[in-house]
C-alpha cells in the first residue's frame, strides 16, 4: 500500500475530530457528522448550547465525543501522562494514537482570536507509522517503532499537546498497552502515573444508545 492508497480525509470546517476518526479506521464511512452530532446531544440533552461542539454547528467536537464514538466501535481511549517516556508503550497492542494540539482558527486569510484544538490521528499501516493530520496535503511517513517514539517525545515536549491511545476493550482491561505492567501500573501507589484510562462513566451518563453504532461494536478489533 502506497501513500496514495492510504485513506486520508482532509480538513473541512472544524471537523478535525471526524476526520481523525475516519482516518483512524481508514474509511470515509466509519463515522458521519450526524452521528457525532447525535452523540453530542446524548451527552448534554438538556443544554440549549451544547458544550461538546461548536455553537455554529461546524464541528469542534471535544474528547467526550471522540471517546463515546470509539466506545461504540469496541474501543477504549487512554490518556497518556507525558511526564513519562513513550518507551513504556507496547506499540503492538495499540491500534492508533490521537494527538490534541492547539491551533489557530482562520476564515480565508484572517486569523481569528478563538481558542481551538485540533485532533490528529497517527497509526501504523503495513509496518510504517503515518501522520494522518487532516491539514496535511498527504499522509506523512513517520517511520517504524523507534521513529514513532522519537516523534511522540518531540510532540509531547510541548505542554499544550496531549496524547490519547486507542486500544481494544481487552487491551484496556489487561493494561497490555504497557511494556512493563508491574512498573507502569495505573494502580501504583506512586504519585506519578504513566497513563490514565479515561472512563466515560465518570463524565457522562450511561443511558446513551446509538442505533447507528450498535452493529459495529467490534470494529476496533479490525483496525490493524
UniProtKB/TrEMBL annotation:
Keywords: Cytoplasm, Hydrolase, Protease, Ubl conjugation pathway. One of its GO terms (molecular function) is cysteine-type deubiquitinase activity. Pfam families: Josephin. The keyword Repressor does not apply. It comes from the Eukaryota. Its main location: cytoplasm. The keyword Hydrolase applies. SMART domains: Josephin (SM01246). Residues 3-181 form the Josephin domain. Signal peptide: none annotated. GO terms for biological process: protein deubiquitination; proteolysis. Cleaves 'Lys-63'-linked poly-ubiquitin chains, and with lesser efficiency 'Lys-48'-linked poly-ubiquitin chains (in vitro). May act as a deubiquitinating enzyme. This is Josephin-2. It comes from Rhamnusium bicolor. Its EC number is 3.4.19.12. It catalyses: Thiol-dependent hydrolysis of ester, thioester, amide, peptide and isopeptide bonds formed by the C-terminal Gly of ubiquitin (a 76-residue protein attached to proteins as an intracellular targeting signal). The active site is at residues 16, 118, 133. It is found in: Cytoplasm, Cytosol. GO terms for cellular component: cytosol.
Amino acid at each position: 500500500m502506497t501513500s496514495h492508497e492510504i485513506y486520508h480525509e482532509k480538513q473541512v470546517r472544524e471537523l478535525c475530530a471526524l476526520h481523525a476518526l475516519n482516518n483512524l479506521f481508514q474509511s470515509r464511512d466509519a463515522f458521519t457528522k450526524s452521528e457525532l452530532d447525535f452523540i453530542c446531544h446524548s451527552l448534554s440533552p438538556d443544554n440549549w448550547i451544547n458544550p461538546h461542539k461548536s455553537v455554529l454547528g461546524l464541528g469542534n467536537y471535544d474528547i467526550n465525543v471522540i471517546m463515546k464514538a470509539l466506545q461504540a466501535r469496541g474501543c477504549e481511549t487512554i490518556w497518556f501522562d507525558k511526564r513519562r517516556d513513550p518507551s513504556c508503550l507496547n506499540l503492538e497492542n495499540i491500534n492508533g494514537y490521537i494527538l490534541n494540539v492547539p491551533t489557530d482558527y482562520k476564515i480565508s486569510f484572517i486569523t481569528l482570536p478563538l481558542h481551538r484544538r485540533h485532533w490528529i490521528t497517527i497509526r501504523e499501516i503495513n509496518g510504517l507509522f503515518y501522520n494522518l493530520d487532516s491539514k496535511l496535503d498527504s499522509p506523512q511517513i513517520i517511520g517504524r517503532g523507534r521513529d514513532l517514539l522519537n516523534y511522540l517525545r518531540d510532540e509531547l515536549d510541548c505542554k499544550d499537546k496531549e496524547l490519547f491511545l486507542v486500544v481494544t476493550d481487552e487491551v484496556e482491561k489487561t493494561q497490555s498497552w504497557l511494556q512493563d505492567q508491574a512498573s507502569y501500573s495505573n494502580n501504583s501507589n506512586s504519585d506519578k502515573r504513566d497513563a490514565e484510562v479515561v472512563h466515560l462513566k465518570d463524565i457522562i451518563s450511561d443511558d446513551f444508545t446509538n442505533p447507528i453504532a450498535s452493529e459495529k461494536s467490534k470494529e476496533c478489533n479490525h483496525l490493524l
